[in-house]
C-alpha cells in the first residue's frame, strides 16, 4: 500500500499558487504493475472548484468511477466553504486520500474526508481555525459577521466530528489563529489513522480480514494489503456510482449535491 501511495504522490507537481488544478494523472500501482489514473487537487482552493469537479465528472463519469477512488492533494488551502462542499463529496464515498508536499488550512478538511488517508514519506498536514474568504464578509456589519462566524465554526466542528477527528486535534485546529499554520507532528498525524474508523470496521466485517496485530511477517503484510485493496475496491464501486449519478443530476440543475449551508451573505 505504502509503495503505491508513494508512486502516486511522486507524479504530482508543485502546487499552483493561484487556483486549484483538478485533473487526472496516470500512476503505476506497483503491487500488480497496472497503470491506473489518480485524481489530483493542486493549488489554492477557490470558489468554483466544486463546480469544476462536477464538470470533470460530467465529461467522463466512467473515468471518475475509477480515478475518483484515489485522490492526491497538494494545497495550502483556500476557500473554506468550497472545501467543505468538495470534502462532503469525498466523504460520501470510500476514497483513498494521499498528500504530496503540503496539505494545509481548508485542504486538511479534504484529507480527513477520506476512508483511507496517507501522507506518504514527506507529506505535511497544517491546520488553523477556519475563516471566511473576504467575499463572504466584506458587505456584513459587525453583528452579521459574528453570526456568520459562529455558523462557520459550528459547521467546521460538526464536519470534523463526523470525520472522527480526535478532540485533541480539533482543539489544535480551533486554537490556532487563522493567520498562522500549525504543522502537525508525526504523532498527531498518526492519531488520524490510516483508515476512517467506520470504513475500518466495515472492511474487517465484509472482507473477513485478520486483525493487524495478528500479522507476523512481511509476506503476510503484503497479502493483507492486497486483500484489503481488492475487497475495499469492490465495496467502493457501488457508493462511487451513486455519488457520480447524484453529482451529475445536481450539476444539470446547477445546484450542489451537498447538503450544506453556504454560510454566506451573497
Describe the protein.
- The chain is an alpha/beta fold and 266 residues long.
- The chain has a single domain (2-252), classed as 2-enoyl-CoA Hydratase, Chain A, domain 1.
- The protein is 49% helix and 16% strand.
- Strands 1, 2, 3, 4, 5, 6 and 7 form a seven-stranded mixed sheet that branches.
- The longest helix is centred in the last third of the chain and has 35 residues, at 218-252.
- The protein is globular, with a radius of gyration of 18 Å.
- It starts with a helix and ends in a 14-residue tail after the last helix.
Shape-level CATH architecture: Alpha-Beta Complex
Helical content, roughly?
40-55%
**Count of helical stretches:** 11
Secondary structure category: alpha/beta
Query: What is the CATH class name?
Result: Alpha Beta
Number of strands: 7
* The CATH superfamily title: 2-enoyl-CoA Hydratase, Chain A, domain 1
Oligomeric organization of the protein chains: single chain
Helix/strand order, N-terminal first: HEEHHEHEHEEHHHEHHH
Topology, element by element:
Blueprint: H1 2-10, E1 21-29, E2 34-42, H2 49-59, H3 61-67, E3 70-75, H4 80-91, E4 96-104, H5 107-111, E5 116-118, E6 124-127, H6 134-137, H7 142-162, H8 167-175, E7 182-183, H9 186-191, H10 197-207, H11 218-252
Parallel strand pairs: 2-3, 3-4, 4-5, 4-6
Antiparallel strand pairs: 1-2, 6-7
Amino acid at each position: 500500500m505504502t509503495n503505491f501511495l508513494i508512486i502516486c504522490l511522486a507524479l504530482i507537481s508543485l502546487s499552483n499558487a493561484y487556483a486549484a488544478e483538478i485533473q487526472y494523472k496516470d500512476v503505476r500501482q506497483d503491487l500488480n504493475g497496472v497503470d491506473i489514473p489518480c485524481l489530483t487537487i493542486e493549488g489554492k482552493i477557490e470558489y468554483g472548484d466544486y463546480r469544476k469537479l462536477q464538470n470533470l465528472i460530467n465529461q467522463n463519469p466512467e473515468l471518475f468511477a475509477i480515478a475518483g477512488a484515489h485522490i492526491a492533494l497538494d494545497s495550502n488551502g483556500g476557500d473554506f466553504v468550497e472545501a467543505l462542499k468538495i470534502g462532503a463529496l469525498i466523504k460520501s464515498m470510500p476514497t483513498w486520500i494521499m498528500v504530496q508536499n503540503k496539505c494545509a488550512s481548508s485542504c486538511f478538511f479534504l484529507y480527513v474526508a477520506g476512508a483511507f488517508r496517507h501522507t506518504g514519506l514527506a507529506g505535511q498536514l497544517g491546520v488553523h481555525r477556519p475563516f471566511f474568504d473576504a467575499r463572504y464578509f466584506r458587505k456584513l456589519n459587525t453583528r452579521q459577521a459574528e453570526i456568520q462566524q459562529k455558523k462557520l465554526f459550528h459547521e467546521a466542528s460538526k464536519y470534523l466530528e463526523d470525520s472522527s477527528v480526535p478532540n485533541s486535534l480539533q482543539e489544535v485546529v480551533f486554537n490556532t489563529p487563522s493567520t498562522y499554520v500549525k504543522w502537525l507532528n508525526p504523532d498527531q498525524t498518526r492519531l488520524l489513522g490510516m483508515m476512517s474508523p467506520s470504513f475500518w470496521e466495515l472492511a474487517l466485517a465484509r472482507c473477513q480480514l485478520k486483525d493487524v496485530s495478528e500479522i507476523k511477517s512481511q509476506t503476510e503484510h503484503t497479502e493483507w494489503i492486497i486483500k484489503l485493496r481488492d475487497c475495499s475496491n469492490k465495496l467502493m464501486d457501488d457508493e462511487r456510482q451513486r455519488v457520480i449519478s447524484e453529482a451529475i443530476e445536481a450539476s444539470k440543475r446547477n445546484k450542489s449535491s451537498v447538503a450544506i449551508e453556504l454560510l454566506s451573505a451573497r
